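Q: Convert this sequence to structure tokens.
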Amino acid sequence: MKPAPCIRTVAVALTGASGMAYGLRLTECLLAAGCRVWLLVSQVAQVVARQELDLTLPSRPAEAQALLTARFGAAEGQLQVFGRDEWFAPPASGSNPPDAMVVCPCTMGSLAAIAAGLAGTLIERAADVVIKEGRPLILVPRETPFSALHLENMLRLARMGVVILPANPGFYHRPQSVEALVDFVVARILDQLRVPHSLLPRWGEDATE
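A:
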């Protein structure tokens, strides 16, 4: 059996679904693990970040990059932020794809566009590139209930090898805070990426070990 490929560069896309805390916490954990992160931010994601987290993400990618680099203590050049129409950004081309991509949180509109192979924004184009280049793609929808159309789009993507990882936290670890619920989902994403973490004890392990 071949060893799993080393994940060095991850594209993280923030779309306008509720659950912005998941995407930002994922970004923080990836940076802490030493990964390079290409952060793709939609315009609606900026609205959601302000509504849910009182976080104002600047419209200019360079300013958003400076703010988040300082917020997460990232090394110089470790975090790059791109806007929706930056077609010369690395993830827009199959000649320079990331090792993996996560859309978190993922709107049903973004999921449908990716399932249809559309590329009207950098996020959609980057996802299309990751699929065609055979790299891991994880979509984290935060919606309920799912309609038949949502489920059909998810099935179509799953058959292509895309991981559909809904933001459904578990409770067996007895979370005592919203942050613990967020970490549960982020831990599952990191597991899929094979990025080491210690956010939660493994099943069957003592939390005090």
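Residues 178-193 form the longest helix (16 residues).
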